[in-house]
Design goal:
4-stranded antiparallel beta sheet; 164 residues; 48% helix; elongated
Length: 164
């Protein structure tokens, strides 16, 4: 499979370098020239500080990656357990920082759900319409907050949903 495999990756999630805009690709030699032209359009002139940070991330201890995975797993379980208790279907992330949930069972479309949650629960979530959900059924919950804040948000979400 090596001669048919293209690998695209970055540092955003594993090393908490979102916004640093450093990534890489690896591919068979016959594709590198063509992919390099594409790559230039997306990532030419990555800042030197970002390049040095990425190199340090690769050369340094990798325990931070496992530590972050444990933290994210804990946050994900708190949120997913809360959504399950509310019978709101969701897709558990496979490595991302977000949980997508179908909130149509609440009787609201996702955009209205987000507004209600903000107004009555003081919890900010975003409708999936921002990410390609043309049905306005899905909401994107972030796992970027500490576990205690996610737990508090889940309690607020429960109050808002129970009032609908």
């Amino acid at each position: 499979m090596f001669e048919r495999t293209i690998t695209l990756n970055g540092f955003s999630k594993a090393y908490c370098m979102t916004g640093w805009r450093v990534g890489y690709f690896a591919a068979p030699k016959n594709l590198i020239t063509h992919l390099s032209e594409l790559h230039h359009g997306f990532a030419i002139c990555a800042p030197a500080v970002s390049q040095h940070a990425a190199l340090a991330a690769l050369k340094g201890s990798q325990t931070c990656v496992e530590d972050l995975k444990k933290i994210m797993d804990e946050r994900c379980q708190i949120l997913c357990n809360g959504l399950s208790e509310l019978s709101i279907p969701f897709s558990e992330p496979q490595g991302g920082y977000y949980v997508y949930a179908d909130v149509s069972s609440t009787g609201l479309n996702a955009s209205d759900f987000c507004l209600k949650l903000l107004e009555y629960g003081q919890v900010i979530v975003y409708p999936g319409t921002l990410y390609g959900d043309h049905c306005d059924r899905f909401v994107r919950f972030s796992l970027t907050q500490p576990s205690d804040k996610i737990s508090d948000a889940v309690n607020r979400i429960k109050k808002v949903v129970s009032s609908l």
